Amino acid sequence: MTALELSSPVAVVGTGTMGQGIAQVALLAGHPVRLYDAVEGQARTAAATIGARLDRLVEKGRLTAEDRSAAGDRLTPVDGLAELAGCGLVVEAILEQLPVKQRLFEELEDVVAEDCLLATNTSSLSVTAIAGTLEKPGRFVGLHFFNPAPLLPLVEVVSGFATDETAATRAYETARAWGKTPVRSADAPGFIVNRVARPFYAEALRLYEERAADPATIDAVLRESGGFKMGPFELTDLIGQDVNEAVTRSVWESFFQDPKFTPSLAQRRLVESRRLGRKSGRGWYAYGDGASRSEPHTAAPAPTPASVVLHGDLFQAHDVAKLIDEAGIDLTYLEPFDPERPGFLELPSGVRVFLSDGSTGNDSEAAVIQFDLALDYRSATRIALAASPAVSEEQLQEAVGLFQALGKQVSVIADAPGMIVARTVAMLVDFAHDAVARGVAGGDDVDTAMLLGVNYPRGPLDWGQALGARWAVETLECLHQEYPTGRYAPSQALRRAAAREDLTA
After folding, report:
1. Which of 109, 121, 126, 156 is catalytic?
2. What's the whole-model pTM score?
3. Which terminus of the chain is more solvent-facing, meaning fewer CB atoms within 10 Å of its CB: N or C?
């Protein structure tokens, strides 16, 4: 099954931000496009807005005047659904309300030809449920674009329970012909991106609720150590706190209130107070003229320790030892005390410095400091540290000085299990394995979706392979001991991946 022919008109129903963006994509791909909106006059207003955007593309040299004129001639606002007869594809981008969407498609069935592909851009509702009242649900698919649709390449092509393979393939090939990168997804709550991405927000919110660190520090650590383009607090401010919280709640309810997807009370309070982020002028941060910038906690300069002893192997953080050596600090290597377990750094005061493993030092009488995971310790510009209660201020300053000597800014946070990056990445790896095992999508599609849909620095399955599934399992098991609610219990899929690693080790 090939892509929709360019001569075949594409209809977009709903002319908000997403509808306009999808219409622009189809228009520039070469299709005639018909716009419809239930609000009188809105389709014409949207057509004018799209025309203005095309004009700006001409001004920037991204579109020729001839192509802009031709595109304008292909764009037609219409006053009724009956005018969508003859379209080869109808994409809906209206309110996220199931009954409203169902009524729309029931009406469209009476208008369009039998071979017309029907698609919803829903991000949170069930594709199967939307098509459930149709006489011919086999031609119904999800085409989930990401905002802004003209710029972001990802499209999730979602097959409902009754979707025909030919319809899904045609939708996939059409999205690809439009210059997008489509991925296949089953009709599961959140599809790929909104399912796998939940821990990125949820773990940050939990750390905030437990006062492990403030939003600016959590954001900075995830950016500057974890390699994410934006931290979860600034990203949800950009998305809109109401939008992000609604998706989280929808996924949680769709999974019958599974604790792995539990929403945040702190975010609920933010929404209730109408602090919705950039669009309201205030969310986790303040915006607008005169708004002060929130800065992350950054430790003051501390003296560099004269020497460090490495006991064993730091495994996922092995580059830290290389950086210490390159910084000119006297580094002594000792034989592994247990080749099955990660090693640690011993500083002159006797304090031991470990890579975070999901545990906490609260119950330990030993002086222990944990440092957080980094995407790449060489390029990371910030490292988070967490000290057990037995650590003195002098010992903490020793550890701060060590990482500062490696060219890192240091954020000291509370002794939270799994710290910031480690617990977030372990959960993302687990969610990705679970999604693949449950048939939501193939592994390559999961990684592609997370790279392109939310701009992650590395696909979670690829990241998990680099860190080791065993590392993720052990980190989550430690978190599960600290929070025995089921939220952090490793999935069976991740456990199986760890078992395969053990067999090949």
Report:
1. 156
2. 0.95
3. C
DSSP state of 410: E
Distance CA(95)–CA(221), nearest Å, equals 36
Q: What one-letter code names the amino acid at 209?
A: E
Every domain range in the chain assigned CATH 1.10.1040.50:
199-280
Residue with the two structure tokens 């590392």: 471
Are the C-beta atoms of 157 and 129 separated by less than 8 Å?
no
C-alpha separations of 321 from 280, 367, 392, 484 in Å = 46, 20, 24, 34
> pLDDT category, 30, cuts 50, 70, 90?
very high
Task: Provide CATH 3.30.750.190 ranges for the chain.
Answer: 307-413
pLDDT at 293 over 90: no
Distance CA 357, CA 254 (A): 31
123: annotated active-site residue? yes
Question: Is the pLDDT confidence value at 505 over 70?
Answer: no
Which of these is catalytic: 31, 121, 123, 124? Answer: 123
Beta-sheet pairing, 10-13 with 307-311: unpaired
For residue 138, the tally of other CB atoms under 10 A from its CB is: 15
214 token code pair: 């403030």
Question: What CATH number is given for 199-280 in this structure?
Answer: 1.10.1040.50
CATH superfamily, with its number, for domain 10-187: NAD(P)-binding Rossmann-like Domain (3.40.50.720)
- Helix/strand/coil for 144: strand
Interatomic CA distance for residues 240 and 279, integer angstroms:
7
* Rounded-to-integer distance, Cα 270 and Cα 284, Å: 8
Q: What's the pLDDT tens digit per position in 49-106?
A: 999 999 999 999 999 999 999 999 999 999 999 999 999 999 999 999 999 999 999 9
The pLDDT, as a whole number, for residue 177 is 97
Does the domain at 307-413 match CATH 3.30.750.190? Answer given as: yes
Q: Average model confidence (pLDDT) for the chain?
A: 95
Cα first-last separation, the chain: 44
The residue from 121, 124, 194, 225 that is catalytic is 194
Q: How many helices and strands in the chain, by DSSP H and E?
A: 19, 15
Catalytic residue among 31, 144, 311, 433: 144
Annotated catalytic, 156?
yes
- Summarize pLDDT for 295-319 with one digit per residue, the tens: 999 999 999 999 999 999 999 999 9
Within the chain, all domains assigned CATH 3.40.50.720 are found at: 10-187
Active-site residue 92, yes or no? no
